[in-house]
Amino acid sequence: MNEILITLLVATLVAILLNLPVIYRAKRMRRLAEARLEIAKVVTEMEKRMLSGDLKVGEVCHDALYKDMVRCQAASGYRVSLSLSRPSVPEQELRKRLHEEIANHDGVGALLKRYIVAHFRAFRQQRPFMSLMFLFWVAAVIAGILGVFSCVKLLRGGRSWWKDYKQSAAEWLFVRANGKLRFGQFA
Amino acid sequence: MDWLREAFAATGRAGPFALGTVWGVLISYGAHYMASGERKQRVKLEVEREKNLLEQLKLKDDRIDKLHELLKQTKEKGKK
Hints:
The complex is a heterodimer.
Chain A lengths: L1 H51 L7 H15 L14 H16 L3 H19 L1 H50 L10
Chain B lengths: L1 H9 L3 H66 L1
């Protein structure tokens, strides 16, 4: 019976190894299609809002955000920025205005969130290796920040230890100088 | 189950080879069945996306019509 079981096991392993990429690719493509559909749904929602007059010309949601969404909808490739640099002053202004508009318009924040999540999902499914690298990058940045904090904490702890040590040494010398303790005796 | 073991041993190398091949083909068929299910779902999603894009075009047309109407009204007001 052992021969039969071993044969079946080996055949199963070989078949899984050969067919795994096929299934993985099909799943990835399906998830990518899901993300693309979600982006299209968000853009349709934005269109509806613009038709109803909720979003008007001159607003950041209409002029910048919507255009970005349409560009993303038409794109065949997705990217995520790895830049750590501070946004420029005009961009900061734009972000500030966008936050204000999101606070004023009901539901735009949820739409923006859906769009960002869908965009990241599309990126993850289209470029699995790059998304893994992105996650490593995020982990490295978090680890770096935590490392800096722990170093600062260590230094501050060392300073307070040095303060305590100096104080206790002064007390000990004072006691010894007043003759309450003999040499070699500790307080 | 002795008869099975004896029969399997009697086939020599051909037995395990045939069994492994048949089993592997069956599993491959299952895997491709799964993948084709995913592909069908993907096609459905793509169709839904196309519908969304068409709806967007329709909404854009509606917006343009609305703007034309507004323009017309403004012109009429200007004439009066």
